[in-house]
Amino acid sequence: MKDACRAFTEKLDALLAGSLPEAETGALRAHAAACPDCAALLALQRRLAGVDAAALEAAVPEILLDGMWPRVSEAILDADARQRSARAAWNWLAPARRPWLVPALAAAAIVLALATGFLAAELRRVEDGQRLLARELSRQERALAALQQPAAGGLLAAPTARWQAAGADGALSVGALRARLAALPPGTVLLDAAEADRLRRALPAGPGALLPAALGGRAAEGSLRAGEALRLLGSLDPDTEIPPERVAALAERLRGRHPAGPRGW
Amino acid sequence: MNPTDREMPDHDALARAFRAGDAGAFRRLVESQSRTLMATAWRYTADWETARDLTQATWVKVWERADRWDPGRPFRPWLLAVHRNTCLSWLRRAARRREELTATPGAGLAAPAGEHPEAALGRREFAAGLRQAIRRLSRRQLAVFTLVDLEQTDQREAAGRLNMAAGTLRATLHAARRKLAGQLRKLEVEP
């Protein structure tokens, strides 16, 4: 800041109060006329000092003053009501007034902690179960995918086509059938009782009717599952060929009953 | 109410009675001191209704915080200090809300009655500019400026209230004024 500006700032109040010698007043006004910063400062102070306190108090609108006490008392009542409400809530909870509250809260906290622990354990158990289930599903999906690969026997690869192929080739040994059955989950339902019975009746007995006989024998007692069929076939020579016409008849039968293959595959 | 009511010599006694639980004494304080509080608030707001709202807010604070007043000291400076804080809070909020700066009349720094419309417009622009400009002041500068220039408190008294040496107060005040004038010029507001 220039010296002249500093002097102007320091003498501003005296300038506005008119308490400076005339010469000094003239010099300061001349400086303000040439210095925009000091001119702004002077204008600002004129504006700020321009309101007389007594005149301002006399100008206060009476109507607003008359309404002051009603407004203040109402605002205080509102504030009091809010405070009372907050105090009441605290007082209700205050241990001195509710001696049972602390033990009750402690008990509630313990119950909550136990319940939380229990729930956490349950959650872990459920999650473990879900993980096991997911693993099992994954395993089954992998097995299913393997079965659908023609190189792995393709037992389930396009089931209908597979049965048709079996009928067309006419060659299916007991060993090949066992290999395919072994790849299935043991609980897989191959035939229900009625289907097995119809199959037994449709296929003639004899050396070439080993499988139908086995199936029929089981079917009379109920549905046949892969595991049981495998066990029944276990006593047979794996090289035994199931005659083409039997395979074709079986394929035809199953294709008619199960366009997409045996149930559960 | 008469303007001379503020000269009532017994507001300290009324305040002590109020502090002891006399609601009637509180009412008499409200009725006798509100004129001064409204005039002070108008210097900040230039709007009588806003000044009324700020005065009301100050009285609610006084009611709630009466126990903070030391009965061994005069009541009026304490009351004015509470009111100044109310007004300064409003000023800071208003300075942050630009839309309010242009929507309300602004800091009342010129004669409120019988004003020519053009002068009133200029006052509003100035007030809005001033509120913007005071954001540039430090806390100390703002305290000195509001006390001395807005409330027209004597500098010696202001130094005492702010616990500040007279020279320090003067230097702070001059710096605040310079900064404000510069800001107003930047904002192209004619003081």
What distance separates the N and C termini of chain A? 96 Å
Order of helices and strands of chain B: HHHHHHHHH
Poorly predicted ranges of chain B:
1-8, 98-118
Look at the helices and sheets of chain B and give the structural class: mainly alpha
Structural class of chain A: mainly alpha
How many β-strand stretches of chain B?
Answer: 0
Strand content of chain A: under 5%
- In total, how many domains does the architecture of chain B comprise? 1
Radius of gyration of chain B: 18 Å
Structure annotation, total helices of chain B = 9
The interface involving the most residues is between:
A-B, 39 and 45 residues
Structure, described:
- The complex is a heterodimer of chains A (265) and B (191).
- Chain A has helices spanning 3-17, 22-34, 36-48, 53-58, 62-66, 68-93, 101-147, 159-169, 174-182, 193-202, 210-219, 226-233, 244-257; strands at residues 172-173, 189-191, 224-225, 241-242.
- Chain A is mainly α and 265 residues long.
- Among the domains of chain A are: 3-49, no CATH class; 150-257, no CATH class.
- Chain A has a two-stranded antiparallel sheet with strand order 1-4. A two-stranded antiparallel ribbon of chain A has the order 2-3.
- Chain A starts with a helix and ends in an 8-residue tail after the last helix.
- The relative contact order of chain A is 0.07.
- The model of chain A is unreliable at 150-168, 202-220 and 257-265 (pLDDT under 50).
- Chain B is mostly helical and 191 residues long.
- In chain B, helix 6 packs across helix 9 and helix 8 (155-161) packs across helix 9 (166-186).
- The radius of gyration of chain B is 18 Å and the shape is globular.
